[in-house]
Amino acid sequence: MVYGWLKQACTLLYSPYCVLCGDRGHAGRELCVGCLRDLPWNRHACERCAAPLPPATLGVPCGACLKTPPPWDRALSPLLYAWPLDRLLQRFKFNGDLAIGRLLGGLLADFLAAGVAKPDLLLPVPLHATRLRERGFNQALELAQPVSRRLRLTIAQDLCARTRDTAVQSKLDAAARRRNLRNAFTIRHTLDGAHVAILDDVVTTGATVTALANTVRKAGALRVQVWSLTRAARAP
Q: Angle at which helices 98-113 and 85-95 pack, to 10 degrees?
């Protein structure tokens, strides 16, 4: 409640401006109506992994999920990892622009609030302690904060640890990403019968969320969802 009051007061005192074009922001956000509309929305996605698909295939799993079903039940991702969203995410993630992070987390929260099965726990993908010290924050946790407030979910911040300081995923191919994340996560207590939503900033090959979902399943989770702000298209 206090957060809501403070947000309304700041909006009245300081009118936000669009971070993309500089025009006046819309609905208290740093995006104007036009730029919000023109973001790369993931309108036609696989119902299982959220990978973008042609419009004619809407409502069915993609070929990859039919061949090898992922270890989660459903994935949701409102945006594609494409311009200009990719630049905003890089500003947030690598330049420490936490205001951009709050904006992006708000967009994800709006999307999920429109209709999603609420989990018991919200699990942001953890960073290794070394990477966390270098960056100063966990981008998945920052995105989870507005989602948690909007959907009234508990963030399981201390549930999982990243026990290996893995190489940066963006520099590896798909096979190397899977090897890189082998035994990378540890769950600190059992999750018997729990419904868990894993949250990350971007899903590319799915290696990170696959490794974490397998770990969550082994801990006893009955249902697993994957929520991400953006989804990258599969490599041809």
A: 130
Helix (H), strand (E) counts: the chain: 9, 7
Structure tokens at 192: 């018997």
CA distances in angstroms from 97 to 36, 101, 136, 234, listed in the order given: 19, 7, 11, 28
- Tokens 């025009």 correspond to 23
State pTM to two decimals. Answer: 0.87
Rounded distance between C-alpha atoms, residue 79 and residue 105, angstroms: 12
CA angle at residue 176 from 137 to 72, to 5 degrees?
A: 70
Burial class (CB in 10 A: 0-12, 13-18, 19+), 94: exposed
Residue 43 binned pLDDT confidence (cut-offs 50, 70, 90): very high
CATH class of domain segment(s) 41-231: alpha beta
Q: What is the mean pLDDT of residues 35-51?
A: 94
Q: What are the residue ranges of CATH 3.40.50 in the chain? A: 41-231
| 63: DSSP letter | H
DSSP-derived letter for residue 162 is E
Q: What pLDDT, on the 0 to 100 scale, is given for residue 152?
A: 96
